[in-house]
Amino acid sequence: MNYSSTFDKAEYPISEGGIWGHANNSWTYLKSSNGVVFPTNGVTNMYDDSYAYLRYGFKSDGTQAAFGPVQTVEGVVSRTSDGNCSVTHEIEIWLHLTDDSNNLRGYELDFPCDGTLQLGRWDGPFGDSSVIKNVPTTQVNYFSRPLVTGDVLKGDITSSGVITMYVNGVPIIRGTDTTYTSGAPGIGGFLRPGATGVFGVTSVKASSN
């Protein structure tokens, strides 16, 4: 199962003909403009991250089907020259995501602008910070600089719940969690107060087997 996009259309929220989904809830939507997808959350530090998930992908014969549980998502960074990394805006890769009118569940692979990667799990209701839990991780390699345009971010999850985060093909951190064994791949982001410039992705690839 595969899907890829370079987001040639200007859309709010992103849809691409209904491929990207987002329940009617209090979390915010992603927007695409000039070939970049970026978050649209508010100016305060709430938990209103922007996100979208893939409703389906395409088999090798071109037919549509839902993504399986072994998932990989990859995105290419776009950061304008006036982007301020001191306030840690985020690009997010999502795995095993499900949502409804008041809940968001799944694994958030967080790639802040300053390069400090984090792995978390969302467990439910909007506005309840206790539903966001850190997944214990192992440092596989070190990454110690801000993200820049062209960096390739990737996350994957195995059938046994091993989640790995990569930058430019190098595994950086790894954790294991088996709370959610199904759901959709997706992308997301969050802008901190004081945001300047644009921090998002120019392309996305997702696959499962």
Number of domains: 1
Q: On the 0-100 scale, what is the average pLDDT? A: 94
β-sheet strand percentage: over 45%
Please state the oligomeric state of the protein chains shown. Answer: single chain
Blueprint of the fold:
Layout: E1 2-5, E2 20-21, E3 30-33, E4 36-39, E5 50-54, E6 57-58, E7 64-65, E8 71-79, E9 90-99, E10 103-112, E11 118-125, E12 132-134, E13 137-139, E14 152-157, E15 162-167, E16 170-176, E17 184-190, E18 199-208
Antiparallel strand pairs: 1-18, 2-5, 3-4, 5-17, 6-7, 8-14, 8-18, 9-10, 9-17, 10-11, 11-12, 13-16, 14-15, 15-16
Describe the fold and architecture.
The protein has no helices and 18 strands. It is mostly beta strands and 209 residues long. Helices cover 0% and strands 49% of the residues. The strands form four sheets. The protein has a seven-stranded antiparallel beta sheet with strand order 1-18-8-14-15-16-13, with no helix packed on it. The relative contact order is 0.28. It has one domain (2-208): Exo-inulinase, domain 1 (Jelly Rolls, Sandwich). A hairpin with a 3-residue loop joins strand 9 (90-99) and strand 10 (103-112).
